[in-house]
Specification:
Blueprint: H1 2-11, H2 24-27, H3 33-42, H4 54-183
Amino acid sequence: ALGCVLFETLTGRVFRSVKPGIRPSNLRPDIPAWLDDLTMHLVAKDYEERPWDGKEVVELLQAQQQTVNRQEDVRRAAEFQRQEEEAKQARLVDAAQQAELKHQQAQADAERQRQEAEAQRKAEESRRAAEVKRQEEETQQARSAEDARQAELKRHYEQAEAEAQRAAELKRQEEIAERRRQLGFDWVEIP
Protein backbone atom coordinates (compact mmCIF):
# COMPACT_ATOMS: atom_id res chain seq x y z
CA ALA A 1 0.00 0.00 0.00
CA LEU A 2 2.88 2.41 0.78
CA GLY A 3 4.29 1.81 -2.70
CA CYS A 4 0.91 2.58 -4.34
CA VAL A 5 0.47 5.77 -2.30
CA LEU A 6 4.01 6.86 -3.19
CA PHE A 7 3.42 6.05 -6.88
CA GLU A 8 0.17 8.07 -6.92
CA THR A 9 1.81 10.95 -5.00
CA LEU A 10 4.70 11.13 -7.49
CA THR A 11 2.73 10.66 -10.72
CA GLY A 12 -0.81 11.76 -9.95
CA ARG A 13 -2.12 8.38 -11.26
CA VAL A 14 -3.47 5.32 -9.56
CA PHE A 15 -0.88 2.54 -9.66
CA ARG A 16 -3.35 -0.14 -10.75
CA SER A 17 -4.54 2.02 -13.70
CA VAL A 18 -1.14 2.09 -15.45
CA LYS A 19 0.41 -0.59 -17.60
CA PRO A 20 2.54 -3.03 -15.58
CA GLY A 21 6.26 -2.21 -15.63
CA ILE A 22 5.68 1.54 -16.02
CA ARG A 23 8.04 3.36 -13.68
CA PRO A 24 7.17 6.73 -12.09
CA SER A 25 10.06 8.29 -14.06
CA ASN A 26 8.35 7.21 -17.30
CA LEU A 27 5.47 9.49 -16.40
CA ARG A 28 7.55 12.22 -14.71
CA PRO A 29 11.17 12.36 -15.93
CA ASP A 30 12.14 14.79 -13.14
CA ILE A 31 11.76 12.11 -10.43
CA PRO A 32 15.17 11.20 -8.94
CA ALA A 33 16.44 7.71 -9.80
CA TRP A 34 16.69 6.61 -6.16
CA LEU A 35 13.01 7.53 -5.52
CA ASP A 36 12.01 5.82 -8.74
CA ASP A 37 13.90 2.67 -7.65
CA LEU A 38 12.40 2.77 -4.11
CA THR A 39 8.86 3.11 -5.49
CA MET A 40 9.36 0.15 -7.85
CA HIS A 41 10.87 -1.84 -4.96
CA LEU A 42 7.76 -1.11 -2.83
CA VAL A 43 5.32 -2.19 -5.61
CA ALA A 44 7.24 -5.26 -6.79
CA LYS A 45 4.99 -8.17 -7.90
CA ASP A 46 6.95 -10.65 -5.88
CA TYR A 47 6.35 -10.07 -2.16
CA GLU A 48 9.79 -11.33 -1.35
CA GLU A 49 11.34 -8.50 -3.32
CA ARG A 50 9.37 -5.93 -1.29
CA PRO A 51 10.66 -4.57 2.06
CA TRP A 52 9.58 -6.81 4.96
CA ASP A 53 8.29 -4.01 7.19
CA GLY A 54 8.35 -0.24 7.77
CA LYS A 55 11.67 -0.50 9.57
CA GLU A 56 13.32 -1.79 6.40
CA VAL A 57 11.75 1.11 4.42
CA VAL A 58 13.05 3.56 7.06
CA GLU A 59 16.53 2.02 6.75
CA LEU A 60 16.34 2.33 2.96
CA LEU A 61 15.22 5.97 3.29
CA GLN A 62 17.96 6.70 5.85
CA ALA A 63 20.58 5.10 3.62
CA GLN A 64 19.27 7.14 0.73
CA GLN A 65 19.27 10.27 2.92
CA GLN A 66 22.92 9.66 3.74
CA THR A 67 23.66 9.22 0.04
CA VAL A 68 21.69 12.39 -0.73
CA ASN A 69 23.56 14.21 2.06
CA ARG A 70 26.90 13.03 0.70
CA GLN A 71 25.87 14.07 -2.80
CA GLU A 72 24.70 17.42 -1.46
CA ASP A 73 28.00 17.85 0.39
CA VAL A 74 29.87 17.02 -2.81
CA ARG A 75 27.62 19.38 -4.77
CA ARG A 76 28.14 22.17 -2.21
CA ALA A 77 31.88 21.57 -2.19
CA ALA A 78 31.91 21.64 -5.99
CA GLU A 79 29.77 24.80 -5.96
CA PHE A 80 32.07 26.38 -3.38
CA GLN A 81 35.10 25.43 -5.48
CA ARG A 82 33.40 26.78 -8.61
CA GLN A 83 32.62 30.04 -6.82
CA GLU A 84 36.20 30.20 -5.56
CA GLU A 85 37.46 29.63 -9.11
CA GLU A 86 35.10 32.30 -10.42
CA ALA A 87 36.26 34.69 -7.68
CA LYS A 88 39.88 33.87 -8.51
CA GLN A 89 39.19 34.42 -12.21
CA ALA A 90 37.41 37.68 -11.38
CA ARG A 91 40.43 38.77 -9.29
CA LEU A 92 42.76 37.83 -12.14
CA VAL A 93 40.60 39.71 -14.63
CA ASP A 94 40.43 42.66 -12.26
CA ALA A 95 44.21 42.56 -11.77
CA ALA A 96 44.69 42.35 -15.54
CA GLN A 97 42.33 45.28 -16.04
CA GLN A 98 44.12 47.26 -13.34
CA ALA A 99 47.46 46.43 -14.97
CA GLU A 100 46.08 47.49 -18.35
CA LEU A 101 44.75 50.72 -16.86
CA LYS A 102 48.14 51.39 -15.25
CA HIS A 103 49.83 50.61 -18.55
CA GLN A 104 47.49 52.94 -20.42
CA GLN A 105 48.01 55.63 -17.76
CA ALA A 106 51.78 55.19 -18.02
CA GLN A 107 51.55 55.47 -21.80
CA ALA A 108 49.35 58.57 -21.49
CA ASP A 109 51.80 60.08 -18.97
CA ALA A 110 54.74 59.27 -21.23
CA GLU A 111 52.93 60.79 -24.22
CA ARG A 112 52.06 63.89 -22.20
CA GLN A 113 55.68 64.22 -21.06
CA ARG A 114 56.87 63.74 -24.64
CA GLN A 115 54.48 66.43 -25.85
CA GLU A 116 55.57 68.77 -23.05
CA ALA A 117 59.23 68.12 -23.89
CA GLU A 118 58.48 68.70 -27.57
CA ALA A 119 56.66 71.95 -26.73
CA GLN A 120 59.60 73.05 -24.56
CA ARG A 121 62.05 72.13 -27.32
CA LYS A 122 60.02 74.11 -29.87
CA ALA A 123 59.74 77.05 -27.47
CA GLU A 124 63.52 76.93 -26.91
CA GLU A 125 64.10 76.75 -30.66
CA SER A 126 61.76 79.71 -31.16
CA ARG A 127 63.55 81.64 -28.41
CA ARG A 128 66.95 80.85 -29.95
CA ALA A 129 65.70 81.76 -33.43
CA ALA A 130 64.32 85.05 -32.06
CA GLU A 131 67.66 85.70 -30.30
CA VAL A 132 69.60 84.92 -33.50
CA LYS A 133 67.27 87.18 -35.47
CA ARG A 134 67.65 89.95 -32.89
CA GLN A 135 71.44 89.58 -33.02
CA GLU A 136 71.37 89.59 -36.83
CA GLU A 137 69.21 92.73 -36.77
CA GLU A 138 71.58 94.36 -34.28
CA THR A 139 74.54 93.32 -36.45
CA GLN A 140 72.77 94.65 -39.54
CA GLN A 141 71.96 97.90 -37.71
CA ALA A 142 75.57 98.12 -36.55
CA ARG A 143 76.76 97.51 -40.14
CA SER A 144 74.30 100.06 -41.43
CA ALA A 145 75.46 102.53 -38.80
CA GLU A 146 79.11 101.75 -39.65
CA ASP A 147 78.36 102.10 -43.37
CA ALA A 148 76.62 105.40 -42.68
CA ARG A 149 79.56 106.54 -40.52
CA GLN A 150 82.02 105.41 -43.23
CA ALA A 151 79.95 107.23 -45.87
CA GLU A 152 79.89 110.33 -43.66
CA LEU A 153 83.66 110.10 -43.12
CA LYS A 154 84.17 109.62 -46.85
CA ARG A 155 81.96 112.61 -47.58
CA HIS A 156 83.87 114.70 -45.01
CA TYR A 157 87.15 113.46 -46.46
CA GLU A 158 86.01 114.25 -49.99
CA GLN A 159 84.80 117.67 -48.83
CA ALA A 160 88.07 118.26 -47.03
CA GLU A 161 89.99 117.09 -50.08
CA ALA A 162 87.87 119.25 -52.37
CA GLU A 163 88.43 122.21 -50.05
CA ALA A 164 92.12 121.44 -49.92
CA GLN A 165 92.17 121.33 -53.72
CA ARG A 166 90.22 124.61 -53.89
CA ALA A 167 92.52 126.10 -51.30
CA ALA A 168 95.54 124.80 -53.21
CA GLU A 169 94.07 126.14 -56.46
CA LEU A 170 93.29 129.45 -54.81
CA LYS A 171 96.81 129.59 -53.39
CA ARG A 172 98.28 128.71 -56.79
CA GLN A 173 96.21 131.37 -58.44
CA GLU A 174 97.24 133.87 -55.76
CA GLU A 175 100.87 132.90 -56.28
CA ILE A 176 100.46 133.33 -60.00
CA ALA A 177 98.76 136.64 -59.48
CA GLU A 178 101.54 137.68 -57.09
CA ARG A 179 104.21 136.70 -59.61
CA ARG A 180 102.45 138.60 -62.28
CA ARG A 181 102.34 141.67 -60.09
CA GLN A 182 105.96 141.24 -59.32
CA LEU A 183 106.78 140.82 -62.95
CA GLY A 184 104.44 143.54 -64.04
CA PHE A 185 102.16 141.35 -66.00
CA ASP A 186 98.96 142.37 -64.46
CA TRP A 187 97.36 142.72 -67.80
CA VAL A 188 98.60 139.40 -69.23
CA GLU A 189 96.70 136.33 -68.40
CA ILE A 190 98.78 133.21 -67.97
CA PRO A 191 97.04 130.06 -68.50
